[in-house]
Amino acid sequence: MARPQRCERKNELIGEDDNPKRLSHTYPNQEAAEQAAESEMNRVRRGKATLQFTLALGRPDITPMMGVHIPSLKTPLGDTDWFIVNTTHSVMAQGFTTLLGMETRKGQEETDADTVEEPEQ
User: Fold this and answer.
1) How far apart are CA 45 and CA 104, in angstroms?
2) What is the pTM of this model?
3) Are 89 and 62 in contact (CB under 8 A)?
4) How is the beta sheet containing 95-104 ordered, strand by strand?
5) pLDDT top residue among 32 and 41
6) Theoretical Cys-Cys bridge with 47: which of 7, 34, 94, 104, CB 3.0 to 4.6 Å?
7) What is the C-alpha separation between 64 and 59, in angstroms, rounded?
8) pLDDT category, 106, cuts 50, 70, 90?
9) C-alpha angle with apex 15: 31 to 113, nearest 5 degrees?
10) How far apart are CA 53 and CA 100, in angstroms?
């Protein structure tokens, strides 16, 4: 019977040391850990706030990386420009819905992206 390999726990720092974030997951190798750290660092750079919003009437034309402005939400959420990071379209007994996963925009560099406006009631 083969002996199990011994594992070694390592800490790696990606980016600057001014505000480190520890990832809670344990990764199978250093490459996977570095990829996860880079991905998390990019997510943090993109935006600080996140929002999930379900549209009761689904919108199949909405896709990730589109801008969103929802003025009917309370301040400061309604005053915030968001961009979509993921969409989940679902067909259920209640009908077709769209779940939006959004983050705040960091700067004006993304203003040339398509923008979804809240439909008139």
Assistant:
1) 10
2) 0.52
3) no
4) 50-55, 95-104, 82-92, 67-69, 115-117
5) 32
6) 104
7) 12
8) low
9) 95
10) 5
